[in-house]
Amino acid sequence: MIYKERSKPLELLQLEVLAHRTALSPKKQSDLVKLKKGFEGERLFDSMLESLSNKHLQVNDLLLTFNGTVFQIDTLLITQEKIFVYEVKNFHGEFIYEQEKFFKFPQQEIQNPLHQIARSTSLLTQLIRKLGFNWPIQSHVIFINKNFTLFNAPPNTSMILPTQIDSHLEYLQTIPSRLNHVHKRLAEKLIEQHLDQSPFQKKPAYSYEQVKKGILCGKCSSSIVKLEGRTVYCDDCGWNEPFADSVVRTVHDFVLLFPEMKITVSQTHEWCNSLISKKGISSALQKNFKRGGKKRWTYYY
Ligand SMILES: [Zn+2]
């Protein structure tokens, strides 16, 4: 049972919008690909865990802190007798393991995920002890991509290589799984400790002026759209939708990129490149957002 859902990282959501509304720098482009791949890997592991029929509590995406040190856990499973912690890696291609170091073939060194998981496991052990639980933790780095090869992989580490995933899932299937309120309390306590935003949260750099305004097609993201009656049409792919839906989607992009700015009728009119009349925008906002302020100070949220 999933106790805490996984959501797309904010930075990924922002970069996805920016990809259609700015020319991404090569660095941002590679951040986007990396975050997307990481998220897809985590989702893939979620779908594998879904196939387990025995009971466990799954807590995803935890950002925790112990003694001032922030650490992150991709997937945590609470089972009857122990806690499983997973760091999910969606690497593909050839890698080499040498003297406790990881290299992407031939010699690009990357952070050793075994060190990463050892650190977060140690912090988690201390944190749950402080919360009043004293359960064993079994942690793993799981390489989820079947096109991942690791040369010189040492046996008996906490790594789960692609060819070992099935047997690990079978093993999970066999462990005792009677859960009670104590297991739930642990899950709830951990979720209470979860930080919404990392103090190290990276925000891609951009400004309102740099970003392309306008309604983008909901299917192909083209900006060549036109309004006919109450419908927005894409000139590139023919996709269409009621204009109010276009306004809502476009405002969501705005909120993601500029959470500090207020949504008002004239702001949205400008953000939608004046394609929709202020009257139309006002009615779309009223139907889909809450209203605050009065008269010319009215805003939506
Ligand atoms: Zn289109």
Terminal CA distance reads 32 Å
The global form is: globular
Tell me how many strands there are: 15
> What name is given to the CATH topology of the largest domain?
Restriction Endonuclease
Task: Please state the structural category.
Answer: alpha/beta
The strand line-up of the biggest sheet is 1-2-3-4-8-10
Q: What is the chain-wise order of helices and strands?
A: EHHEEEEEEHEEEHHEEEHHHEE
Q: Helicity range of the residues?
A: 25-40%
Low-confidence stretches: none
Helical segment count: 8
Can you tell me the CATH architecture of the largest domain?
3-Layer(aba) Sandwich
Main sheet overview? 6 strands, mixed
Mean pLDDT: 94
Distinct small molecules: zinc ion
Radius of gyration: 23 Å
What count of structural domains?
Answer: 2
CATH class (first level) name of the largest domain: Alpha Beta
The portion of residues forming beta strands comes to 15-25%
Task: Characterise this structure.
The chain is α/β, with parallel strands linked by helices and 301 residues long. It folds into two domains: 2-193, Restriction Endonuclease (3-Layer(aba) Sandwich), CATH 3.40.91; 225-300. The chain has helices at 10-21, 26-50, 113-130, 165-174, 181-193, 243-257, 265-271, 278-288; strands at residues 2-4, 57-66, 69-78, 83-89, 93-98, 101-104, 108-110, 137-143, 148-151, 159-160, 225-228, 231-234, 240-242, 291-292, 299-300. Helix 7 (265-271) crosses helix 8 (278-288). The mean pLDDT is 94. Bound molecules: zinc ion. The site of zinc ion has 8 residues, from loops.
